[in-house]
Design brief:
Elements (H helix, E strand, L loop, with lengths): L3 H12 L7 H7 L7 H14 L2 E3 L5 E3 L38 E11 L2 E6 L7 E3 L12 E8 L4 E10 L3 H11 L8 H8 L7 H5 L2 E2 L5 E5 L8 E8 L4 E9 L1 H4 L5 H9 L3 E3 L2 E3 L4 H7 L7 E11 L5 E12 L3 E3 H8 L11 H23 L10 E5 L5 E6 L4 H23 L6 E3 L5 H13 L12 H11 L5 H11 L4 E3 L23 H14 L8 H34 L6 E10 L2 E6 L5 E5 H5 L13 E10 L4 E6 L2
Parallel strand pairs: 5-7, 8-15, 9-16
Antiparallel strand pairs: 1-2, 3-4, 3-6, 4-5, 6-7, 9-10, 10-11, 11-14, 12-13, 14-15, 17-18, 19-20, 21-22, 21-24, 22-23, 24-25
Helix pairs in contact: 4-17, 11-12, 13-15
Length: 652
């Protein structure tokens, strides 16, 4: 349930009809004494963290995910985000709201003398009685369910029973339901895909450039099955230049616009990579077979061919439909063994592949140097990876280790995406771009003030440029809190989104950018493939501006939802792994400091958690005592699977 102060804040913001209020205004409107400002600030921070309210770029506050439609209504019954159990992802609009007729949420059942009541996981929603509808149903105390509440009603109907709360598999089902992730493909889609012809006709091949004679291969993760990109390279201009091929699975050849498979792909928008499973955008027959660039199998592709001079500057490019036969399926670790061993660990690879890898490394270094020289921001935040035993149980949480092969493929894909964006724009076609707009002046001001508090006087003007931010990153590079500073910078930047606007990508420092290289797992890439076909075949545009805008907005929303589900699965698995370690002491490092507590990361396992303020306040420690990046000894107090989080305390 909401605290009294949280309820008052929500009611106030609702009454203001969507207007944002400053901390001072909220303090005055709620008649809170100045001496309790710190308590109000902690409440506001917590509500922002939970998504109940949102902090604007100017540091003001307004209702969070529920938007303007909740203004003027009972603050306990707002409209909710479409990706949170709206039951139908097609209903998600550009603002992420449901259709407003009912609300579907996760809830824990609790037995009372008068019957079962549902306690929604969203704390801002009050408890409600369960409707019996034609006789009593045998529920269990502590059961996790999905409930549906009609707006204005005080009772709810159970629509899905997931299991006992707190059990790992039940909680996984809860996340899948919470984010409305699809649970299978329809019969129509399966039938349609099953009827696709795996053989190629002369017509399929005659209009394509045949690259089967070139050394082109895939580099992917150890567990990957959907190989949608392949690369090849050779020296040109008497050894003084490079020709790079980036060949991408031609999904648009199989998934026709308006087909059942296309509609389902559009509905999903993206593949979701959860910690123990993949929920694909396309059925396996496409993603893992017909469109997967398997070694020594003839596959239809779209190729971006790029010529570079000896300095790595792009001199010419061509985009065409092609057919390839991948020479090999390499893993990142296998490729890295060659690249980082200068070709010595290549006994299982052909000479041509080994030679290609070394030339790729050469070109990659030049491309990255040029991009960073233009202002590209090179964040390299560590990611968590779950290490499992033979039974599939998590035995550790470690840092995912990126290597040279990862960076090469990433740089080549960036280049291909940029070339395609420029090609589409120059031909005058409307399209979907991947944009990253410059940060707001207010965000830069807040960043500058935050940096000053930790001793960094940053030369960041209201319209900060990439070199200014690079200078801050360079200053932080030798500090123990460099990762935390880089994260502060990242939070000051806007998020990259899909858009029909043709504007530069701030983070990459590239004028033209789109997503083209992953049509198996991203719907915008498939749309861009079709637009490229329209240009190559001199056809009228398949998409008008209004439809492209709708697709871009929707895909941006669903991308965030998929990222949220992926993050929550990881949090859940981490909490489950750590629950047997409650009471143990660890070496921690401070990640961030807030009025409500301190986030820390422990060194023994790559996990993080919160030290709530009340746990260290009684020890006489003040918030100013903490420093970013500081080493602390902490004790794990709890591992909460239902809330998917870890709580620590300072060790004695």
């Amino acid at each position: 349930m909401l605290s009294k102060r949280e309820s008052r804040v929500l009611r106030l913001l609702s009454e203001k009809e969507g207007k944002s209020l400053s901390e001072q205004k909220i303090l005055r409107e709620l008649k809170i004494p100045e001496r309790k400002r710190k308590n109000l600030r902690a409440t506001l921070e917590r509500m922002v963290l939970e998504g109940t309210i949102k902090r604007t770029s100017k540091g003001r506050y307004r209702l969070g995910k529920y938007g303007k439609k909740s203004a003027g209504k009972d603050h306990r019954r707002p409209n909710f985000p479409g990706h949170t159990l709206n039951g139908n992802r097609k209903k998600i609009g550009s603002n992420g709201l449901s259709n407003g007729n009912s609300l579907r949420v996760l809830a824990d059942l609790r037995k009372t003398p008068r019957g079962f009541v549902a306690c929604p996981r969203k704390t801002e929603i009050p408890e409600c009685e369960i409707e019996s509808r034609g006789g009593k149903r045998s529920f269990s105390d502590g059961e996790l369910v999905v409930i549906e509440i009609g707006l204005g009603k005080t009772s709810a109907r159970v629509t899905e029973r997931l299991g006992i709360s707190g059990e790992i598999e039940t909680e996984k089902k809860g996340i899948i339901s919470e984010y409305s992730l699809p649970k299978g493909f329809s019969r129509n889609v399966i039938k349609e895909v099953g009827n696709l012809n795996a053989e190629f006709s002369n017509g399929d091949l005659s209009a394509r450039v045949n690259l089967e004679g070139e050394t082109i291969f895939t580099i992917d993760g150890d567990d990957a099955k959907d190989f949608d990109d392949a690369v090849g390279i050779k020296r040109i201009r008497k050894g003084k230049g490079y020709r790079l091929w980036v060949s991408i699975a031609d999904v648009s050849h199989y998934v026709l616009s308006g087909s059942a498979c296309d509609e389902e792909a559009a509905r999903r928008a993206t593949s979701t990579y959860l910690s123990d499973r993949v929920i694909p955008m396309l059925p396996k027959r496409l993603s893992n077979d017909l469109c997967s660039l398997r070694p020594r199998k003839r596959r239809l592709t779209k190729t971006v061919e790029m010529d570079f001079d000896s300095s790595g500057r792009l001199k010419d490019s061509r985009i065409y439909n092609s057919v390839i036969k991948s020479s090999a399926r390499l893993t990142y670790s296998k490729a890295a063994a060659v690249l980082e061993g200068n070709g010595t660990a290549s006994s299982s690879l052909s000479k041509s592949i080994t030679s290609s890898l070394l030339v790729m490394r050469e070109l990659y270094g030049k491309l990255k140097e040029l991009r960073i020289g233009k202002g590209g921001l090179d964040f390299d935040f560590p990611e968590a990876v779950l290490l499992r035993n033979s039974s599939g149980e998590v035995r550790d949480v470690d840092r995912f280790k990126r290597n040279t092969a990862h960076e090469i493929i990433e740089e080549f894909m960036i280049m291909a995406n940029s070339v395609v964006a420029d090609f589409v724009f120059r031909n005058g076609f409307e399209s979907i771009y991947r944009i990253h707009e410059p940060p707001d002046p207010d965000s830069i001001k807040q960043l500058r003030e935050s940096l000053l508090k930790i001793g960094i006087k940053a030369n960041l003007g209201a319209r900060a440029k990439q070199p200014d931010i690079q200078a801050v990153m360079k200053t932080a590079s030798g500090r123990r809190d460099r990762e935390q500073i880089n994260f502060m910078i990242l939070r000051a930047l806007k998020k990259a989104v899909y858009s029909t606007k043709h504007v530069p990508h701030f983070g990459l420092a590239i004028d033209d950018y789109t997503h083209f290289t992953s049509p198996i797992r991203r719907y915008p890439d498939l749309v861009v493939h079709r637009i490229v076909d329209d240009i190559l075949e001199k056809k009228d545009p398949s998409y008008d501006s209004a439809l492209l805008k709708k697709i871009a907005e929707r895909c941006s929303i669903l991308e965030r939802a998929a990222e949220g589900a992926e993050r929550q699965f990881m949090n859940l698995e981490t909490a489950n792994f750590m629950k047997t370690r409650v009471g143990e002491v660890f070496h921690g490092k401070i990640l961030s400091i807030h009025p409500f507590g301190v986030f820390i990361e422990i060194k023994e396992h790559f996990v993080e958690g919160l030290i709530p303020e009340h746990l260290y306040k009684h020890k006489g420690k003040k918030r100013k005592w903490f420093e970013l990046g500081e080493d602390v000894r902490v004790k794990l107090v709890s591992a909460d699977l239902e809330r998917r989080r870890l709580t620590f305390d300072l060790a004695s």
